[in-house]
Amino acid sequence: MKILIFLVAASLFSQTPREANFALSNFHFTSGESLPKLNLHYATLGSPKRDAQGHVSNAVLILHGTGGSGKQFLRPEFSGVLFQPGELLDASKYFLILPDDIGHGKSSKPSDGLHARFPHFGYRDMVTAEYRLVTEGLHVDHLRLILGTSMGCMHAWMWGERNPEFMDALMPLACLPIPISGRNRIWRKMLLDSIRNDPAWLDGEYKRQPPGLVSAIHLLIIAGSSSLQMQKQTPDAYLANEVAHRLATTDANDLLYAVDSSRDYDPSKDFERIQAVVMHINSADDFINPPELGIAEREIKRVKRGHFVLLPTTDETRGHGTHTLARVWERYLEELLKQSAH
C-alpha cells in the first residue's frame, strides 16, 4: 500500500507544472538592439535523468506557435493525451520543457512597457534564447525530442540545423521548411498593415487597443480555420464570440512583433546538416501551409532521416490548429520515438 501511495504521489507531482523565469543579461538581438535584461518564462514537468556519462537523456522541448505560450500544451487535448502516466510523453519519465518565447506569454514583450520601442526580434533571436534557457538555465546538454507547432515547427527546423548533434528527434508540426512566402506572407502583411495603418495605433503608444486590431483578428481567424468545421458554425455568432475572446487576450503591439518576427526564417539552405530523425507533419486543411504546393514533400527528400506525413482532412482535423490535437497524430510520434531510440 505504501509503495502504491508513493507511486500515485510521484505521478501527481510530475503532472504539476513548475513555473520559473530565466533572466538573460544584456541580450543582444540580431537587429543590433539590446535589452539589459531579457526574461524568458517557462514551465517544466518531470525531472531530468542522466545517463552513465552524465548527459541528460529524457529532456523534451515543446515549442508553441505565434501568439501562444507554453501554457497551451497543458490543455486536455494535448497534455491529457501525451503527458499522462503510460502515454508517449509520460511526465514521470520525461523532463518536459515548455518555454514562452520572446514576446509571448509571461516572457519579456512590448506590452510590458516599451511598446514599439521594444527591440525588434526575429526567429534567430528566439531560438538563441531557447537554446540558452535549455543549456544555461536548465543545464540540459541533450534533448530526446523537440516538438514544435506552427512557429515552434519552424523553430524546430532551425534547432536541427544549428545544433545537429543536440537532439535525437524532431517533430515539426504545421509549417513549411522554406522562407515564408506567397499567400502566407501576404496575409501576414495584411495583418501588420491593418494595425500600423490605423491612426489610433499612434506608433504603438495607444491607450486602448486600436480598432485595426479587430481586422487583424479577423485574418487570424481565417488563417487558422478549418472550412469543414466552419461550415457547421452559425457564422455571425461564431465570429462575434471569437473576436470578443481574442480581444480580451491580445495586445496590438505584441501581435505586430510576433507576426513580424518570421521575417528572418529560412531553414532551406542547411537541411543536409540535420542529423536527427525527423517526422514532419502537416494537415491537408491548413490554410497557412497549403498542401497543393508540394513543398514539404519536395524538401523532406534533402533530410537524411526525414519523413513527411500529410494528414487528410477529416472530422477530427481543425485546419492549422490540428497541431495541438495530439490524438490525431500521436501514432506518428510513437513511430518517431521508436525510430530515434538508442
Major sheet size, sense and barrel closure: 8 strands, mixed
Whole-number tally of structural domains: 2
Q: Give the uncertain stretches in residue-range form.
A: 1-13
Widest β-sheet, arrangement of strands: 1-2-4-3-5-6-7-8
Q: What structural class results from the helix and strand content?
A: alpha/beta
**Strand portion, in percent?**
15-25%
Gyration radius from CA atoms, angstroms: 20 Å
Can you give a write-up of this model?
This protein has helices at residues 2-14, 79-82, 123-137, 151-162, 182-196, 212-223, 227-230, 235-247, 252-260, 295-299, 326-339; strands at 18-28, 34-45, 59-63, 95-99, 143-149, 167-173, 277-283, 306-311. The chain folds into 2 domains: 2-178 and 271-339, Rossmann fold (3-Layer(aba) Sandwich), CATH 3.40.50.1820; 182-261, Rna Polymerase Sigma Factor, Chain: A (Orthogonal Bundle). It starts with a helix and ends with a helix. The protein is built from 11 helices and 8 strands. 41% of the residues are buried. It is globular and about 60 Å long. It has 342 residues and is an alpha/beta fold. α3 (123-137) packs across α4. The protein has an 8-stranded mixed β-sheet with strand order 1-2-4-3-5-6-7-8, sandwiched between helices.
